[in-house]
Amino acid sequence: MDTPSERFTLAHGSGGELSNQLLEGSVFKLLHNEFLQKRHDGAVFELSGRLAFTTDSYVVSPLFFPGGNIGDLAVNGTVNDLAMCGAIPKYLSLSFILEEGFSKEEFTTILSTIRKAADAAGVLVVTGDTKVVERGKGDKLFINTSGIGKVHPKAAIDADNIKIGDKIIISGPVASHGMAIMSVRQGLEFESQIESDTVCVHKQVLELLDEFGTDIHFLRDPTRGGVATVLNELARQTQLGMAIAEQQIPVDAQVQAACEMLGLDPLYVANEGIFIALVDAGVSENVLKTLHKATSKQLAAIIGTVVAEHPGQVVMQTEIGGRRVVPMPSGEQLPRIC
Amino acid sequence: MDTPSERFTLAHGSGGELSNQLLEGSVFKLLHNEFLQKRHDGAVFELSGRLAFTTDSYVVSPLFFPGGNIGDLAVNGTVNDLAMCGAIPKYLSLSFILEEGFSKEEFTTILSTIRKAADAAGVLVVTGDTKVVERGKGDKLFINTSGIGKVHPKAAIDADNIKIGDKIIISGPVASHGMAIMSVRQGLEFESQIESDTVCVHKQVLELLDEFGTDIHFLRDPTRGGVATVLNELARQTQLGMAIAEQQIPVDAQVQAACEMLGLDPLYVANEGIFIALVDAGVSENVLKTLHKATSKQLAAIIGTVVAEHPGQVVMQTEIGGRRVVPMPSGEQLPRIC
């Protein structure tokens, strides 16, 4: 059994002695760098040019899942959002909302994961905040990470740049993150465990920008709502059609089986380690080659084309030869997936 | 009675149709600007030089209080943290964690307040995120705001610059925010209502930096834990002594009375619209004059001096002539004050 001192109390969020102990004893120790060292309300650094700025709050439940925990999710998610802006991720902020009674041991494990994920992504956590809410007014731990990056000089990522004929490329197999979370929630067992794909993708993105520059028209990571939601948003925003082919969409066999078991469409399931790129048709095969060079699995695929037909809609050629509209999801398939 | 459609459901956080309706129908409409217009995962802008970056999550309860609500608190708090770095606030991110069942009407009111506070502070909300958690797993609404600012060319705000003889200046009366929240929680009634001091202070700060530059050694806003906590942190960090005089500390008579009624020491109560400046003794009287010019009330005051004695401690000369240590608070005086 934990002793009360191993769990968070409201006083840890008070700004007083216990807040200081929490910060000095774990947060600053595990995340140590010259910026946090200043113990100030914010971080100051030199940075110039076109910058990208993004934010995400993470409320994933459960906090720990096969392949990761809320800590690497919070780092990778925000790093990836910066990458989707065509930016080299630089600095992160980190803000915790802890529920009274949450385990300090779990918190420390998550902090260590944050440190590892930040190191792997080459970013620094430079400023932060910690709040504690009463038992029953939160759910163990919510994390917000915001991030700043420097936009790649060749990047021109903008939905306005999407044009008819652009190829729709996906960088890896879909639905792993969502199904990893669901398998824990539902207590499903498979031959081998389904793992979340939570990983940072900015190195792949920066390589594409180096090589293909403005021929990379748009980037988006299909997190909540999955590939179907991202493509629907783009179809609406551009008032162009998105035509995709079911058989081109990479799905791990076990993930596919789990989706079928739960009656979920993998196109709507969340991802945390892949991205969608809309690229000039002329470079699409070479983009694919570059993506394939990066991993041994070579699962990136061209899944479709931007078309003039069915403006505002996503239409899929099915494996059995038919065509169907892939609608924007209306309800909630998988709450608190990220 | 509200109909169910006037309250948030989990689907509003799903990334699907209802998420889109929420964003298009209220968030993007009320906060409209060229950056949000892009509907991307992050915002891209040009900014160069020494930048400041800060984050804060706001979990104040209740959401609405005399003088403000969580919306202006979230804007002003982060704007002020940037100001404390000596920076001109520029861009904010905004991330909501909504509890299922929270009122859309209240949310809209808070969004309007955010817009007004951002306009007043001269900052733009350029990127954001919305999550919804199940009933009983949150508390109506938590907000994270992160911010980016451009550091004033003359600013050199660093605890390392604090030196013996520096004067400790406070920009206005203490404890108003905390007591405004407490008066609502406790249902206290006074002759006139105690109002939170939630306001942005960066204009005052930038004026000081224009005029006094590097003679402004350090800035900090005494939010959670109040003036006593900030001074204790500085005493520890610098290993210098902070000597303050009780009779110099400005407290509104009604706030003082409310503190006495609840047995609270105003030095430990949260503030949201004042700051502490540690300045070179040679300019302290002129700093005070500049602060007094800014408001008709002229309540800024020199409350003490940085001394070689009692290193690491805050010692107060009391009104009745004695001296006492003002300790770092250990426990939780006022949870969820910001």
What would you note in describing this structure?
The structure is a homodimer of 338-residue chains. With 338 residues, the first copy, chain A, is of the alpha+beta class. Chain A has 2 domains: 4-151, PurM-like, N-terminal domain (60s Ribosomal Protein L30, Chain: A); 159-325, PurM-like C-terminal domain (Phosphoribosyl-aminoimidazole Synthetase, Chain A, domain 2, Alpha-Beta Complex), CATH 3.90.650. In chain A, 31% of the residues lie in helices and 25% in strands. Chain A is built from 8 helices and 13 strands. Chain A has helices at residues 17-31, 70-84, 104-121, 176-186, 202-212, 226-238, 253-262, 284-294; strands at residues 43-58, 64-65, 68-69, 87-99, 124-133, 141-151, 167-170, 216-220, 241-245, 276-279, 301-307, 314-317, 323-325. In chain A, the strands form 3 sheets. A 7-stranded mixed beta sheet of chain A has the order 8-10-7-11-9-12-13. A 4-stranded mixed beta sheet of chain A has the order 1-6-4-5. In chain A, strands 2-3 form a two-stranded antiparallel ribbon. In chain A, helix 3 links the parallel strand 4 (87-99) and strand 5 (124-133). In chain A, helix 1 (17-31) packs parallel to helix 3 (104-121) and helix 5 runs antiparallel to helix 8. The two termini of chain A are 29 Å apart. Chains A, B: Residues 163-315 form the PurM-like C-terminal domain. Chains A, B: This is Hydrogenase expression/formation protein HypE. Chains A, B: Belongs to the HypE family. Chains A, B: InterPro entries: HypE (IPR011854), PurM-like_C_dom (IPR010918), PurM-like_C_sf (IPR036676), PurM-like_N (IPR016188), PurM-like_N_sf (IPR036921). Chains A, B: It holds the Pfam family AIRS.
